[in-house]
Design a protein that fits this description.
Layout (H helix, E strand, L loop, with lengths): L9 H8 L6 E4 L6 H9 L5 E6 L2 H13 L3 E5 L5 H7 L6 E7 L4 H5 L25 H5 L4 H12 L4 H14 L5 H11 L11 H12 L1 H15 E11 L2 H16 L18 E3 L4 E2 L2 H6 L7 E7 L2
Parallel strand pairs: 1-2, 1-4, 2-3, 4-5
Antiparallel strand pairs: 5-8, 6-8, 7-8
Length: 309
């Protein structure tokens, strides 16, 4: 296994997150521990950090870190279970900060046997947690053509979604998909045009990965739960890597900044609007130096909000 993951917006995220060196924090996407290790460096003796990840390989890395630092605990599961994990630790409404990095880690992308890569051949899997749930092969071999087209359009913003979905369904009748390059080749053949410098399978693979892992519904669940487990003054830090995720995060923060949307002219006080968040600074993107060092950081957008009440 290669552990060559480079953590994106590392210092920017941790700087934004930590408001109290003795506080309780959650790294909802532990990955290979880049953010968590820096958080622990910044925490004082009374600080605590909970790491969460779906990926069993990430959990193995987390357990090793847990052995080294008593302030850290690793939890196998989805960040959409944050409220449950906080409740188990009597931490609902007591958390000082929640950080999530929504990118797929480099080891997941680069290891062919994980099934995320359209450049290397491997089993068509794509599950973050490959111990449960439906694999990408299961889904592309069974989903109706209309559903495949909708997923490619909605989650991959793929212009040729219907054409690609038709090609997938026609191919699976003759020979069900089991390997990543089988799917990548069918998508490429069905795709008449794609962005310069991008593989023709990029958008389709992104869409199928999002569908297989329920990434957008998990993100919506995470945001709602993070708001409940944070204490007033606690920080929410989210790093997104494509426009679908970023729109969800931006809309969520804006909604809770404005509070209740009432007809104009109603005699209500500011407190009655129930504003629960305030934005902290503007959206942050990777510097030119970081992008040059790690091309995968080029699409990263970080948003930070602070809980008011």
């Amino acid at each position: 296994m290669t552990d060559n993951h480079v953590t994106v917006l590392l210092h920017e995220a941790v700087d934004a997150l930590i408001v109290d060196g003795n506080g309780f924090y959650v790294d909802g996407t532990f990955g290979r521990g880049g953010h968590s290790r820096l958080i622990l460096e910044r925490l004082q003796s009374g600080g605590r950090l909970l790491g969460v990840d779906k990926d069993p390989r990430a959990i193995a890395t987390g357990k090793a870190l847990q052995e080294l630092d008593a302030r850290f605990t690793i939890q196998h599961g989805s960040f959409a279970q944050l409220q449950e994990f906080a409740r188990e630790r009597d931490a609902v409404g007591k958390v000082d900060g929640v950080l999530v990095d929504l990118g797929v880690s480099s080891p997941q992308l680069d290891e062919a046997d994980r099934g995320f890569s359209f450049l290397q051949d491997g089993p068509l899997d794509m599950r973050m947690d490959d111990s449960r749930g439906m694999s990408a092969a299961d889904w592309v071999n069974s989903a109706p053509e209309a559903e495949i087209a909708q997923v490619l359009k909605d989650y991959g913003e793929e212009r040729f979604a219907k054409r690609i979905a038709r090609a997938i369904v026609q191919r699976r009748v003759q020979d069900p998909f089991t390997r990543t390059l089988q799917l990548a080749n069918v998508v490429a053949e069905a795709n008449p045009a794609w962005e310069k410098g991008k593989n023709p399978a990029t958008r389709a693979f992104q869409a199928i990965r999002i569908r297989v892992n329920d990434e957008l519904s998990d993100l919506e669940g995470l945001l709602d739960q993070a708001l409940e487990i944070l204490k007033p003054g606690g920080r929410l830090v989210v790093i997104s890597f494509h426009s679908l995720e970023d729109r969800i995060v931006k809309r969520f923060i804006r909604h809770h900044e404005k509070g209740l949307q009432l007809p104009k002219g109603l005699p209500v006080t500011e407190a009655q609007l129930n504003k629960r968040l305030r934005s902290v600074g503007k959206a942050v993107k990777a510097s030119a130096e970081e992008v040059n060092a790690n091309v995968r950081s080029r699409s990263a957008v970080m948003r930070v909000a602070e809980k008011i009440q």
